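Section 4.2 – Deliverable D4.2 (structural model, holo form)

The reporting period included a commitment to supply a predicted holo structure for the target in complex with succinic acid. Inputs used:
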Amino acid sequence: MTVSTIVHVGALELKNPVLSASGTYGHGLEMSNFVSPALLGGLVSKTVTRKPRPGNAPPRMAETPSGMLNSIGLENRGIEYYKKEVLPTLRGAGTRIITNIGGESVEDFAYCAELLDSESVVEALEVNLSCPNIQGAKLPFSTDANLAAAAIAAVRKATKKPVWAKLSPNVTSIGDIAKAVEAAGADAITAINTLLGMAIDWQKRLPLLSTTFGGLSGPAIKPVALRMVVECSRSVRIPIVAAGGARSADDVLEFLVAGASAVQIGTWNFVDPAAIGVIVNELPRLLRDSKIADIADLIGSLRAPTPVKFEGVEASLER
Ligand code: SIN
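Output (structure tokens):
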């Protein structure tokens, strides 16, 4: 049985729904010894910012059961370096290049978007509205719908490229933020970034991270990510790109059923840098086993009642 693994995120066609997640795969080619980039649906870069950033002081990573905490703080060499030194190396990678841009002001986001607009190798911009490790963990651009919309509107104005808004799980209603960025011109939503958490050394009475709080990622957050993908996909019409704890081909298919059009593999790349290739190669077999000819048929196929009921109380999950 021939199966198709092709998916679309808006107008962008991907050979399969598997993408690397920002910050877990370098800028893309660093992992070529483990997996050919041409195998993947796309590569999402580490966040690039207007100016170089040294990141937060160490320690800025801590292991947790089924996951990890990070408080990197968007360390990167800045957008000028990225344009001059990194982008030329990505030409001919044989996969879609999605550049993740970050900032601390609306102007920062717009500046990066404008500078990348003429770069043909960049096929979409993922706007990191949701890094919990800057601005005192206040997450202004992903917890305030107006600020989220302002950032996306400014990026929309600065570029013709597809704009993906990467949202935070650290909110009461991600669907409301999703609606705001959709109205501001986002072409897709990436859900979710990390969950704000912390770890403690009880003997020293100290937090393990220099910043006290950091972002939790890995398999531990997959159930949260699935729930939020469902909420987003039922709140907006634009496509959803899932991120959050996926580590297998089955996980990828779960996220598609939840409503995602593509799925990013993140923390699992640190556990096994070759896993993302194994996941891609596994997909056709899983589809064949379930007699599914086209992977796209799974997208949003969840048979859940809308609205969802919790002990008789109806939670609104609008379509
Ligand atoms: C970081 O660099 O602090 C992680 C990026 C993010 O969570 O958006």
